[in-house]
Design a protein that fits this description.
heterodimer; A: 329 residues; 2 strands; globular; disordered N terminus; B: 294 residues; mainly alpha; 11 helices
Chain lengths: 329, 294
């Protein structure tokens, strides 16, 4: 086994409180701050931008469930996000599904694809796991380039937002904002629940010492597969929500660059923290937003952030804050 | 002449295309495998450094007026030196951490290199001429063989063989293999292991720059030329199983050929076939074709 593990918040015996979702006091406060931010953000910020951030934040949280709480680095998560976007867009446009059903279809797609990826990739650990997931996502990317329903380079355009439950039309940006925020908060709470459940504790034991978990009778491969499927499903939901909110799904979301971006979000925000991926998504999406007119400098900036984070900032923003406050965040 | 319903000339030229792609897969996966064996780092920047090799060749020609054969010599040296600096001052800081950090760090390095080159040169690609000495072609009777393409396959095989001889048959290679098995023990015998690590990384990277120079006249010199290769090469490495040098070479060449024949049978599937082979190998033999253990 490798001695030096990821700098995870190893707080000894996890003090799981009986409170809802097992959130610590610090996490409850952070959660309220986040909700307040989502509520007031559209007053000062461009609502479409905040929606995009929320979609990527949910994507990053789903990814964080794997790297942070199971110890698996997937370098192919864009496949689930991007395919989720395509499937939500296609079902909403061609089958006329309502947005919530389209998003559920996206989640289901993520789960099925995650199961297929997982069954192949779990056969190798560590670095090779990352390489295999990357290669598999490239296979999905090429399939999307060829498949007729994705419309190749043009992407899937003019996806209707429709009406939630067939009743509440998402015609206005305000209604859509509330829809995206609801999906994000529900998804976030699901992840928080998973992390603090007995199942989540077993995942953490695998992350800390897989050999010992096996010796205790845990069938670690099944748990890793389950975590992978859950993470992929939530990533699919995030992609589907993005497609519904913005009306298009393109190859960009399936490309491995998007897989790299979500890794950076989680790393920068703080691996093994609940709120780190959210903060990372805010920072990276802002960076991409402000540098979008500057050609490839956004790519260079992301590369430099990767290098900086690995060499000098492995706890990330929230991890550093959590260490300072001596609280789990 | 027809073989299996295809004209022999077509099969021959597909075989050649396959061997050429295979030569690049072999050279790149060879470097990756050597680096991984000793450093436990999957060098994500390998593709970017391959691209850098091609750009150094372009720069030598257009700025310094030094032609192809000079580039074949100098580009690996220059990129290898850069690799040594990167290893010594940046990558070496991740050795005491989880191995995943090495992957993330080199991914960041790849993004920086490719982003800078996209900003400087755009993405349309720069032409690099086939050197005069290797222009033209020869008729083999059943097919036409462009000399440069034959040269690439030949020189790639030679480079792979030289690497194999250096690693398996020289004292330096013995040291390298010993350090791969147990670095701390080798260090106890007084070998400066950190220097060995730097040298290995530089050599692996030089090999990819060498491949980059070979690639320059075939594909245009393009900032994105490495990233499209590196993921396929990862799949090649997974299929081969990082077991042996010869394993990487054989896997690289055969997958290039398989990919090229897939293009003949079912063109849309040619970009996917290597990944499908990877899935099949992982399901049937998780350790890879030449892997020692799972």
């Amino acid at each position: 086994m490798t001695a030096a593990v990821l700098p995870l918040a190893r707080s000894g015996a996890p003090a799981v409180t009986a409170s809802a979702y097992g959130l610590s006091t610090g996490q409850k406060i952070a959660f309220l701050v986040m909700i307040a931010f989502i509520a007031v953000a559209p007053l000062g910020l461009y609502p479409l931008f905040v929606m995009k951030v929320m979609c990527f934040a949910l994507f990053a949280c789903a990814f964080g469930l794997l790297i942070g709480f199971t110890g698996l680095l997937s370098f192919g998560h864009a496949a689930f996000f991007g395919m989720g976007a395509y499937i939500a867009g296609w079902t909403a446009k061609s089958l006329g599904l309502t947005p919530e059903l389209a998003v559920l279809a996206a989640g289901l797609t993520g789960a099925v694809l995650g199961l297929l990826f997982g069954l192949v990739a779990i056969r190798r650990a560590g670095l090779q796991f990352a390489m295999i997931t990357l290669a598999l996502s490239q296979l999905v990317y090429f399939a999307c380039v060829q498949a007729p329903f994705t419309h190749g380079e043009d992407g899937l355009q003019d996806i209707p937002r429709g009406s939630v439950f067939g009743l509440i039309p998402l015609a206005s940006d305000t209604a859509t904002y509330i829809f995206v925020a609801a999906v994000f908060v529900i998804g976030f709470l699901v992840i928080a629940r998973i992390v603090h459940s007995p199942f989540g504790q077993i995942l953490k034991s695998i992350r800390e010492n897989e050999a010992r978990a096996i010796s205790l009778g845990v069938e670690t491969d099944r748990y890793k597969l389950a975590a992978f499927v859950l993470s992929a499903a939530i990533a699919g939901v995030a992609g589907g929500t993005k497609a519904i909110a913005f009306g298009f799904a393109t190859l960009v979301d399936v490309h491995f660059v998007a897989s790299g971006e979500v890794v950076l979000m989680t790393l920068l925000g703080g691996i093994s923290t609940l709120f780190g991926p959210v903060v990372g998504a805010v920072i990276i999406e802002s960076l991409v937003h402000f540098l979008s007119r500057q050609g490839s400098w956004a790519t260079v900036a992301q590369g430099l952030l990767f290098i900086l984070c690995v060499l000098a900032f492995r706890k990330g923003v929230i991890g550093t804050l959590a260490a300072r406050l001596k609280s789990r965040l | 002449m027809m073989i299996l319903g295809y004209p022999a000339a077509l099969l021959g030229s597909q075989l050649l295309v396959g061997l050429i792609n295979g030569a690049f897969y072999a050279l790149l996966s060879l470097g990756l495998a050597i680096i991984f064996g000793l450093l436990n780092v999957i060098n994500f920047a390998h593709g970017a450094l391959f691209m850098l090799g091609a750009f150094v060749a372009w720069g030598l020609l257009n700025v310094a007026g030094l032609g192809y054969f000079w580039a074949l010599l100098l580009a690996p040296l220059i990129v290898g030196l850069l690799g040594a600096v990167l290893e010594r001052f940046v990558i070496s800081r991740t050795y005491k951490l989880d191995h995943l950090y090495g992957l993330l760090l080199t991914f960041g390095i790849a993004l920086v290199i490719e982003g800078v080159f996209r900003n400087l040169f755009g993405t349309s690609g720069l032409p690099y001429p086939v050197p005069p000495a290797l222009q033209g072609g020869t008729n083999l009777g059943f097919m036409f063989l462009p000399i440069y393409r034959g040269w690439v396959v030949l020189i790639a095989v030679v480079a792979c063989l030289v690497t194999w001889i250096v690693v398996e048959k020289t004292p330096l290679g013995a040291l390298l293999r010993a350090a791969t098995e147990d670095a701390s023990l080798v260090s106890a015998f007084g070998v400066k292991v950190p220097r060995l690590l730097t040298l290995t990384f530089a050599a692996g990277v030089a090999l990819s720059a060498f491949a980059g120079v070979l690639a320059a006249p075939i594909y245009s010199v393009n900032p994105n030329m490495g990233s499209s290769f590196i993921i396929v090469v990862f799949a090649v490495v997974v299929i081969g199983g990082m077991g042996s040098i010869m394993g990487s070479v054989i896997t690289g060449f055969s997958l290039g050929v398989i990919e090229s024949f897939a293009k003949l049978v079912y063109p849309p599937g040619s970009s996917m076939v290597i990944f499908l082979v990877m899935i099949a190998v992982l399901l049937a033999r998780p350790a890879g074709l030449f892997g020692k253990n799972a």
